[in-house]
Write a structure and sequence with these properties.
128 residues, homodimer, two-stranded antiparallel ribbon, 30% helix, 2 domains, alpha+beta, 4 helices, DNA-binding, Arc Repressor Mutant, subunit A, three-stranded mixed beta sheet, 5 strands
Chain lengths: 128, 128
DNA sequence: CCCATAAATGATAATGATTATCATTTACAA
DNA sequence: TTGTAAATGATAATCATTATCATTTATGGG
């Protein structure tokens, strides 16, 4: 009999992901939960993030900074990656319909749009 | 006196990149040039790809497959990543103007749009 | 043409995020 | 309560990329 069992750690990881808009990395999740779950292993975090992604509970965002970011908001939306402070921010922007632009026979299941630049905070602070 | 010197390997890497539309990885470039440059080292490929990117001669494309892809076509265009055959294809699609959609104070230098799905060939072949 | 010197290379070790392994713990149905 | 298979935690392994360093090479000045 195969199935998924309940696990306290898994619940905690998903709950944490759903409580933030910062699109955390596995490492961030790990250290954030360490306080409440001192015995938590980093492998459990990676394992469950991958599982959530496969189950469609979260989406993985790759902004090319070397880390996988995870977002519990699986609604269609786009992101802004500040190349100065490294944050990944949500954008409030309507979904754009591109499918008619794809070559004949190509079928897109989803698409990802990421803006790179400096956020308002970093622009003010004249970060290099 | 600091500057850039001429190098046969560097020329070959850039020439190869400019001769293809397949958005190759460092590894692909390395093995492709091995025939003509048996002594070529993989580090030289990585080094020069990074250099080209910094110089703005090529753009790096991250589709989340674990590899950095490089594209000598630095014009504004978008990509389609076939999750079946793993290819990265160019899309002929006009540049979309999003800047007015960004939050106050945010300045985007560039953006990246990637579609994920199956290309026409893989759809025909009923790849899983 | 010949050096001096600093850039570039090639071999290889190191890095670092992610994944695999495996013994132990835990959930849960019978 | 108990048998079991899933889940965990510790840790080794993986693998793309980067750093190190001795050697080679390009290039400008004499």
């Amino acid at each position: 009999m195969s199935g998924t069992r309940h696990s306290t750690q898994r619940d905690a990881i998903l709950t944490l992901l759903r409580s933030t808009k910062t699109h955390p990395t596995a490492e961030w999740v790990y250290f954030s939960l360490k306080e409440d779950f001192p015995s938590l292993g980093i492998a459990t975090v990676y394992r469950n993030l991958k599982l959530f992604e496969k189950q469609g509970l979260v989406q993985r965002i790759d902004v090319g900074d070397g880390y996988d970011h995870y977002d519990a908001d699986i609604s269609q939306h786009y992101h802004f990656h500040c190349t100065s402070c490294r944050q990944v921010l949500d954008l409030d922007m309507p979904k754009l319909e591109f499918d008619s632009c794809l070559p004949e026979g190509h079928i897109a299941e989803h698409h990802q749009l990421v803006f790179f630049g400096k956020c308002c905070k970093c622009n003010e602070e004249q970060c290099s």
